[in-house]
Specification:
Elements: E1 2-5, E2 7-10, E3 13-21, H1 23-26, H2 33-57, H3 62-73, H4 75-86, H5 91-107, H6 112-132, E4 144-148, H7 153-159, E5 163-168, H8 176-184, E6 188-190, E7 200-204, E8 209-212, H9 216-231, E9 243-248, H10 254-259, E10 264-269, H11 271-274, H12 283-297, E11 301-305, H13 325-329, H14 332-344, E12 351-355, H15 361-377, E13 385-390, H16 393-397, E14 407-410, H17 412-420, H18 431-452, E15 455-458, H19 466-475, E16 479-482, H20 487-497
Parallel strand pairs: 3-4, 4-5, 5-6, 9-10, 9-16, 10-11, 11-12, 12-13, 13-14, 14-15, 15-16
Antiparallel strand pairs: 1-8, 2-6, 3-7, 7-8
The chain binds phosphoenolpyruvate and magnesium ion.
Length: 498
């Protein structure tokens, strides 16, 4: 038996067989040009077939569909995409790039007719990608402890039910993979361990250690520990008028949100749902997911953050140069479908819509207007609150212009990077370098929301880091949104504070 130490990113105990995965398997498999070209050709052919049959079913849209077929039949689409494949890209990336290039040139056009063609192209892109990509979760049949160089959220989401624990060589506390592990209760450590495929190991984050090839008695002991931990339950203490809210990424977490006594969901990271799929979800599929969440919460509020793609969260069918409004302008159909599904699921007027990575109040106004237009087209009259994540220095510096928002949630993970250029992986180690200054800057936000009766919360990882949470409470912030296991920290700091 050997013992290795490491840094804890998500607490817990795990016993299991090691499965080692090299980086390319987790992130991107090197595409083989010939196969990629064949796949793309078939996906375009399948898309044309789909549209042909749609045309016969839907006479009123015949003209629109015929035009899409024409665009798909254009030989330039295939030849340009094939050139990109020859440059080393996958079929999905290639066809996305080519269509994006055309979309960007149309967006620059002065004619509104041409501008509207962007929607057609976006639609075509999604259809091709849907036909191109299949699910790619691991084939492995048993539960395992993953050992890898680095971990990406999409891999984690697709394999979460098989993951007993995770060890990577690189990673930080506020990375999205670490955030997800805490939400899903998967123990996660960063360590340079030396293990073999199929070796049995034990992760014990309470001792910050990993045991490799443990003795029989150690295994027995840890099996008992695991049994005890599975019975552990937490409950929010009395905390009115504060709001203890949950950050979730998946409906499997909803039961715990209610069990632990959270007041609602302060951040539903909807893009994490998308990570389960290599094609955009349909309106019906998304409606089912959002509706299930709304039903589980009943009268409690639920804040859906519109999909937030970028950094370590990437999707093959979403193209955006930066997070925020770009995500939606460049993928208008995906945005519209998501909004329609969220609005349809607003059964009890409890839904809030939150836009991430906002830089200016004009971006907020533009997105709110867009959503209201979609709602009007749906003839829906439900009540929705609109808000922003405060996670850019630009928005912080112009906070007084955001008087039209219903709520603001401080996303410290991106905000700290935006102001101090401290990467999310290092933020919890470097607290003393920026916390005091951040609190000074946030005072301006607290004063502003008081004056305009805007609800303010913190939903970044700092809301569950004790010294930071204490400072937020002293500043007068009353609402916190955290991963469900962090209810322990909210309870503890709240008790100390009052
Ligand atoms: C944040 O930036 O603080 C946040 C909550 O959003 P995410 O971590 O998903 O970027
Ligand atoms: Mg963020």
């Amino acid at each position: 038996m050997s013992c290795f130490s490491g840094k804890v990113l998500s607490e817990g105990v795990a016993i299991g067989k090691v499965h080692i995965i090299n980086q390319s398997a987790i992130h991107q498999i090197n595409p083989q040009p010939k196969k990629e070209k064949e796949k793309l050709k078939k996906a375009i052919e399948d898309s044309i077939k789909e549209l042909e049959s749609l045309k016969t079913e839907s006479k009123e849209n015949e003209e629109y569909i015929s035009m899409q077929i024409l665009l798909l039949n254009d030989p330039m689409l295939l030849s340009k995409s094939n050139q990109e494949i020859d440059n080393g890209l996958s079929a999905a990336q290639s066809v996305s790039n080519v269509l994006h290039e055309i979309m960007n040139s149309l967006l620059d056009a002065t004619s509104s007719y041409l501008k509207e063609r962007v929607l057609d192209l976006s639609d075509i892109k999604e259809r091709i990608l849907r036909n191109l990509l299949g699910k790619k979760s691991l084939e492995i049949q048993y539960d395992f402890i993953l050992v890898a160089e680095e971990l990406y959220p999409s891999f984690l989401i697709q394999n979460k039910n098989k993951l007993l624990g995770i060890i990577t060589h690189k990673g930080g506390y506020s990375s999205h993979s670490a955030i997800l592990c805490r939400q899903f209760n998967i123990p996660y450590m960063v360590s340079n361990i030396d293990v073999k495929e199929n070796e049995i190991i034990i992760i014990d984050t309470r001792k910050q250690q990993i045991l490799t090839s443990p003795e029989e008695n150690e295994i027995k002991h840890y099996q008992e520990v695991l049994h005890k931990l599975s019975k552990e339950n937490f409950e929010a203490i009395e905390h009115a008028p504060y709001q203890f809210l949950a950050n979730v990424s998946d409906n499997s977490e909803l039961e715990r949100v209610n069990q632990y006594g959270f007041d609602g969901i302060g951040l539903y990271r909807t893009e994490m749902i998308f990570m389960n799929s290599d094609r955009p979800y349909t309106l019906e599929e998304q409606y089912e997911i959002y509706s299930e969440a709304v039903e589980a919460m009943q009268s409690k509020s639920i804040c859906f953050r519109t999909f937030d793609i970028g950094d370590d969260k990437q999707l093959p069918y979403i193209e955006a140069s930066k997070k925020g409004v770009d995500n939606y302008i460049h993928n208008p159909i995906v945005f519209k479908t998501q909004i329609e599904a969220i609005i349809q699921a607003n059964h009890y007027n409890t839904v809030k819509i939150m836009f991430p990575m906002i830089y200016s109040s004009s971006e907020f106004d533009f997105l709110k207007k867009w959503v209201l237009q979609i709602q009007k087209e749906m003839k829906d009259t439900s009540y929705i609150q609109f808000g922003i994540m405060l996670e850019t220095e630009e928005a912080l510096n112009s906070i007084e212009t955001f008087y039209d928002v219903d709520f603001i949630s401080i996303g410290t993970n991106d905000l700290v990077y935006s102001i101090y250029h401290i990467h999310r992986d290092a933020q919890t180690n470097d607290l003393e370098n920026y916390l005091n200054d951040l609190i000074l800057k946030l005072k301006r936000v607290v004063d502003f929301v008081k004056e305009h009766k805007i609800t303010l919360s913190v939903c970044g990882e700092l809301a569950a880091i004790e010294p930071a949470l204490k400072e937020f409470m002293k500043l007068g912030i009353e609402n916190y949104s955290v991963a469900t296991p962090a209810i322990k920290i909210l309870n503890h700091v709240y008790k100390e504070f009052f």
